[in-house]
Write a structure and sequence with these properties.
The protein has two helices and six strands. The protein is of the alpha+beta class.
Amino acid sequence: MKEAIFTIDAPKAIGPYSQAIKASGFIFVSGQLPINSQNGEIISDVSQATRQVLTNINNILKSVGSSIDKAVKITIYLLDMKDFSLVNEVYGEFFHNPYPARVCVEVKDLPKKAIIEIDCIALE
């Protein structure tokens, strides 16, 4: 059984998918872009963008009683791997030991011309 998750404290899905799905004790958060859910602004500074994406993920998780502290797997998509160290700095503000498993890849393009996208799997 699966349950769709939606909160107004994160950007609405921009296509036929859910912000997140809760299933079998896990929460699968769809890729989040650096969009401010209050004004729709897409943030282009990589540090601020990373902070906004992780805030969006945390807001989705908190909406169902979880949190970013319960993340077990993160995937980061960057337009430029040169931003990796800046992303890591902000990432360290959100995650603590034991850190979730993680993948970071450079991609050619992201929706809405975003510079970063992050998805997450967390425990309920």
